[in-house]
């Protein structure tokens, strides 16, 4: 049912009753760098959260005259765990490894086989799975492009691999890859025309295809239509896959959802009538386990901001721990005139809707319209142990009530993380498309209070990032396409040179400062010029000028991140991992649930990079051990 929002209309007024002075300051859009912080509810945050039961993710990469080997430190490990690394039956380390989860085995043969063994209280435990070998510095996962076709008006199309996600689909501790295929005639919502069908595949890392779902003619292809979520929602140790479907969708077993013959496409290629479903697919087989009516429903097309079908079919999706313990599915529609967000549980083979937030509800008022982004983020912004949905210039509380909004309106990019480690809680950095608004800002993620902002640029500021990319100033540096230089956590220019990229970031080398990921290369920021660390070979990026990888995240090895690009012919997904030896030891980021849910929503609309709930960067404190459990 719809959850009423308490006090209506005022930004900064949610279930905790923000004080009037703060609400007025936020409503005015003023800089509140020194605003008092709300108390964090640390007792509530002590609740353990469900995470995946992962293996060690052991990888071996040929590097120079030896092999770089790295593995996962798990959130379920003892904080005092050490490791022994074995090449075949030979232990390669002289004493248990305690300060890192990587090792360079100089002089070893290229084809050497490795395992790693935890050491707990001096006792060596069972060996891990054998290491994945990255020959030639990368691992190729073979994939199979669908056959092309032709639209009703005779336009031919082909397929290329697009966004990907990961999940342990079969419960063996190793991630599988879920991949979306886009036809060459995919469309932005503002563009008319037919598109080919969208396909979604699941692959093991050896290239075995587990299943293929054909979403059918009644799901249009494009960045705003299909946001797929891969997560273990019911806690059975195996991930499910959730997507919006329609009549004619064919599941991974060949079963058709709804009517196989229905065709709701109009002469402009838009799909503005017919039933819409939310379907949960079995991660092992691709079987549709249950389909329910999609919420939010389409309703009257013009109620979303236009009558021809642009704004009505803008979808976002995520996964969030809104109860503080177990994951729920988040489905959303609209971010211009109207925004509707719903939260779903998947338990015992059945969907249950928790709540629905609707900006058009009489309890909300006009302050909540046009506040959404082409993306979203999830995190416990108010410290009560439960996740909120940060939707751009607004946030929705864990119970479906509006938490805050900034009235800065729509934007294309944002970051949610501990961007300023010198103050408690999380921050949001966002760039804006509204030409009458500031070009971007940093806000307190608990209240929406704007800490600092750029001047108005009178432009569509379409790109921007915030992360610690330079050790020359504390905390995150922020930059955007419409501003010069990089800015510190107080909004002062920290250096006049701006990075060459503002698309993505990645932890790649030995230090905790993050690197720049753009198109098919990785660079390190420098005040006199960026330094190239990696150029992918024979690969291509996705999503036009967004130039994003299929996926980037900590999916293998130690806490540094991998990057997954499609090969230029879309015959493989090529995974690269770092070979930089580090003495820094951090629990796998996939056992930090803010980061793990960010990997789940990374494929949503305009892809954004993930951030954990804690600060990683120069001068960082040792992160707290995660309070998690495995099914």
Which regions are unreliable across 5 or more consecutive residues at pLDDT < 50?
Answer: 1-45
Q: State the total count of DSSP E strands.
A: 45
Mean pLDDT: 92
What is the rounded Rg? 23 Å
Give me the number of helical elements.
2
Portion in beta strands:
25-35%
Rounded to the nearest angstrom, the distance between the terminal CA atoms is: 29 Å
Structural class: mainly beta
Q: Which percent range fits the helix content?
A: under 10%
Shape: globular
Key features of this structure:
single chain; disordered N terminus; 2 helices; 631 residues; lyase; lyase activity; five-stranded antiparallel sheet; mainly beta; RGI_lyase; RGL11; 45 strands
Describe this structure in words.
The chain is mainly beta. 3% of the residues lie in helices and 33% in strands. It has 2 helices and 45 strands. The strands form 13 sheets. Strands 10, 41, 42, 43 and 44 form a 5-stranded antiparallel beta sheet that branches. Strands 6-3-2-9 form a 4-stranded mixed beta sheet, with no helix packed on it. Strands 5-4-7-8 form a 4-stranded antiparallel beta sheet, with no helix packed on it. Strand 11 and strand 12 form a beta hairpin. The longest helix has 9 residues. The protein is globular.
Topology overview:
Blueprint (H helix, E strand, L loop, with lengths): L19 H9 L20 E2 L8 E5 L2 E5 L11 E6 L2 E2 L10 E5 L7 E7 L2 E2 L7 E3 L3 E5 L6 E2 L5 E2 L1 E9 L8 E8 L15 E5 L5 E6 L14 E3 L8 E7 L29 E6 L6 E6 L21 E6 L7 E6 L6 E8 L2 E9 L13 E8 L8 E5 L1 E3 L5 E4 L8 E4 L9 E5 L8 E5 L5 E4 L10 E4 L9 E4 L5 E2 L5 E3 L8 E3 L8 E4 L2 E4 L6 E5 L3 E2 L10 E3 L8 E6 L4 E5 L16 H9 L26 E2 L2
Parallel strand pairs: 1-45, 2-9
Antiparallel strand pairs: 2-3, 3-6, 4-5, 4-7, 7-8, 10-44, 11-12, 13-14, 14-15, 15-16, 17-18, 18-19, 19-20, 21-22, 22-23, 23-24, 25-26, 26-27, 27-28, 29-30, 30-31, 31-32, 33-34, 35-36, 37-38, 38-39, 39-40, 41-43, 42-43, 43-44
InterPro entries: Ig-like_fold (IPR013783), Integrin_alpha_N (IPR028994), RGI_lyase (IPR041624), RGL11 (IPR034641), RGL11_C (IPR049366)
Keywords: Lyase
Protein name: Rhamnogalacturonan lyase
